């Protein structure tokens, strides 16, 4: 292949935008699937609700007609709706699961159909260190843990077709979400980090680039933390 086509869900802002921008610099043909149009990004854009099965199927069919092959898919789209469980409604639970887990599954399914026929491909699913558990995030933590299980099973299904499936689990990253926290809460979270700092969206993008590279062909079904060591435990 000369130019490799890569799809990034939720690629219009935050970590997804950093992933898209880096992959464009690395000469990938980047297609963003999102509900909002990205600003100042040279990626191709498709408006797509990843929780809508018909939209996902139709969008992938259109992309395949226009670009013939799909080298990689990065499932980055996700939402949060944090509350302690006794305050959380079933609708708030379902909303997070539908976007983070079912949406990822729908995109993985359409990707798998295409990559299986191609006999090559890369799927990278963005989970979170929160899969280990965070108070107030029973819905989010469950969805991100589900992504890891989904990815491991899919890696076993697609391995013989030369398709790798891996997971990246970011920790505390400097995004609009963390920037909206009060200075006190933000500093408290930083103090929990072994490195006493906060990650950048570019740190996650570099991990995506690493797993997309053909030289990492033998890495499959793995979980890569990008969290400054926070997943190991609390620092002292």
Structural notes for this entry:
This protein is an alpha/beta fold and 236 residues long. It contains seven helices and seven strands; from the N terminus they run βαββαβαβαβαααβ. It has a seven-stranded parallel beta sheet with strand order 3-2-1-4-5-6-7, with helices on both faces. Helix 1 packs across helix 7, helix 2 runs parallel beside helix 3 and helix 3 packs parallel to helix 4.
* Shape call: globular
Give the terminus-to-terminus CA distance: 49 Å
Largest sheet: 7 strands, parallel
Structural class: alpha/beta
**What is the mean pLDDT?**
95
Strand-residue proportion? 15-25%
Count of β-strands: 7
Give short descriptive properties of this protein.
globular; seven-stranded parallel sheet; 16% strand; 236 residues; alpha/beta
């Amino acid at each position: 292949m000369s130019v490799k086509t890569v799809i990034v869900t939720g690629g219009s802002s935050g970590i997804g935008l950093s992933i898209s921008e880096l992959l464009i610099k690395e000469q990938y043909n980047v297609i963003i699937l999102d509900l909002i149009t990205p600003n100042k990004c040279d990626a191709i854009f498709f408006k797509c609700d990843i929780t809508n099965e018909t939209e996902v199927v139709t969008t992938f069919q259109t992309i395949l007609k226009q670009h013939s092959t799909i080298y990689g898919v990065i499932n980055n789209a996700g939402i949060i709706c944090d509350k302690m469980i006794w305050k959380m409604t079933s609708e708030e639970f379902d909303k997070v699961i539908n976007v983070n887990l079912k949406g990822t599954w729908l995109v993985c399914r359409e990707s798998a159909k295409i990559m299986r026929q191609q006999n090559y491909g890369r799927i990278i699913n963005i989970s979170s260190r929160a899969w280990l558990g965070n108070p107030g995030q029973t819905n989010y933590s469950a969805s991100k843990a589900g992504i890891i299980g989904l990815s491991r099973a899919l890696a076993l299904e697609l391995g013989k077709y030369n398709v790798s499936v891996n997971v990246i689990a970011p920790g505390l990253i400097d995004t609009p979400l963390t920037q909206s926290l009060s200075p006190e809460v933000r500093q408290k979270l930083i103090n929990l980090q072994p490195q006493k700092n906060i990650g950048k969206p570019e740190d996650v993008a570099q991990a995506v680039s690493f797993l997309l590279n053909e030289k990492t062909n033998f890495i499959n079904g793995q979980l890569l933390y990008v969290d400054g060591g926070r997943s190991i435990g609390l620092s002292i």
